[in-house]
């Protein structure tokens, strides 16, 4: 472990890593603090840029956006009662009432301190847990890994309660799209409609830019949201929370535990983590009646849990090469571009990269907090930018991003098509994550299953003769049955929403 | 939860609609693609020069499985969803503007080759700002600011290459300026 720390510190000697770290953190805070944008748009827009960067700098830039976005999202949640990102919703419950009661600095300080503890705790867990899990994955066969990829996708679908069927449909669509182009076994074309530009498959960058950036830009252009007025005059005196959070150690570390646990599980993520952390904190509080009226434990539970998720989400990605949600799925493409293979070999062949990533994630939390302490006064005013203006800016960035990747009009058209789909999905409140996971995990799953079934000579009992595969299979069947039961029982009760 | 939360909602909390029709459309598209399966994939055993590897490596297997999954689940979701009353005039207007914006994006890609990066973005940002409801001085300010920012980010910052436009063949501009614009 000491070796890893020293090796990681050496990687911080690269100035590009610092540029990526600070640049990603600033952008993440800004995008997080503007309601309705969030880090996803930034990651989509910057993904093509990271392909030309050193892998550590590229991943650091994206992680900076990812982690800092959740920090920044707490600012409008507290100052104007509008969460910057979806994962900061529960912060409004106690953050805004506290700010309204004349303590905005205390609320922000508690949010920053809780986020910092959650983030650092999760990085430490990542440092301890990723390598052992990766070592264990050495004993997994192709069938086991294929089933693990399938389980990750099913978990993501099941996590979208109330939209299970629609999520399954989108997962299927994403998996199908991933098969378009030349396949590897025979080198034959699939669904290319006799065109040459489709032989390389549907470009992932164009899909991501479309779904996340252009779809969001359409939504913002048509938005009629009125900017809420709030207490955005906050500066100095933001350090108090770094002492106060430790007055609630049980809430703090239990919430961090929820964040890590939920972050490691594919598809569960920030929403459930903060929900469990918040409800548990309220249930175990001596003053539960204060929750929703400015309870410090409410802010601590919500912010600690959601900021513990990003580093924890890297555990399955680094150790098994299986992303659990859309952001880490996008990061997997950076690994692929640079020929880095996540899994057990990553920790042997790319020790410098792994050690550097650990250290940048630790330093990142410090940098983000320093940036917030210095700039909250200005960042808080970002939430006043009109949605339509943001829409114009995102359109321009997405247009250049989609075209300049390959200088092909077809890429821009694909991005626009997925942008329209993303807009329609947002309008219908149908989650987009399954389609991205299907696109990224589809080829991985197909490759493992082809290898595994081929090695068994086509014998399908290989799925049940391997104990690990059998456990995964039983879990998948149980989860699918549960999802279908939820979907149809919800309909019977008349509670099913538009997504089925 | 305080009452104030009702006053200020984020954009992602707006009323939602259209899911049933979207899922129905997905199901229909998947059925059409499934019908084209035989035409859009090849039989592995018939690929010349290759041995029959096995059923598990058939090129058409995965697309067929994934399309069947899409058809079944999107149809189930379609029938399970509550019926919706859609204001088609409103939806038509909204998607009409989406189509207009999409057309502007495609048009701008062609403009890159004719008037160059900076001017194309200036025109594009101006049109998008107009569609977004900005007028007069604010529209011009937004278009100019967007154009300058994009030049600084992509051309100066990331040195992103763009093809030399036709316009620069007619106007004698310094080489460095052509590289930026």
Written account of the structure:
The complex is a heterodimer of chains A (500) and B (181). In chain A, strands 1-2 form a two-stranded antiparallel sheet. In chain A, a hairpin with a 6-residue loop joins strand 1 (181-182) and strand 2 (189-190). Chain A has 500 residues and is mainly alpha-helical. In chain A, helix 3 (39-50) packs antiparallel against helix 4 (55-79). Chain A has 21 helices and 2 strands. In chain B, helix 1 packs antiparallel against helix 3 and helix 4 (88-115) packs antiparallel against helix 5. Chain B is flat and about 60 Å long. The relative contact order of chain B is 0.08. The model of chain B is unreliable at 1-14 (pLDDT under 50). The interface between A and B is large, with 89 and 85 residues.
Index terms:
heterodimer, A: 500 residues, mainly alpha, globular, disordered C terminus, B: 181 residues
Query: How many extended strands of chain A?
Result: 2
The string of secondary-structure elements of chain B, in order, is: HHHHHHHH
Q: What composes the largest sheet of chain A?
A: 2 strands, antiparallel
Strand content of chain A: under 5%
Overall form of chain B: flat
> How many angstroms does the end-to-end distance of chain A come to?
49 Å
Poorly predicted regions of chain B are 1-14
Helix content of chain B: 55-70%
Relative strand content of chain B: under 5%
Mean pLDDT of chain A: 87
- Spans of chain A of at least 5 consecutive residues whose pLDDT stays below 50 are 495-500
Distance between the termini of chain B: 52 Å
How is the quaternary structure best described?
heterodimer
Large-scale geometry of chain A? globular
Secondary structure: number of strands of chain B = 0
Give the class of chain A from helix and strand content and strand pairing: mainly alpha
Most extensive contact: A-B, 89 and 85 residues
Question: How many individual helices of chain B?
Answer: 8
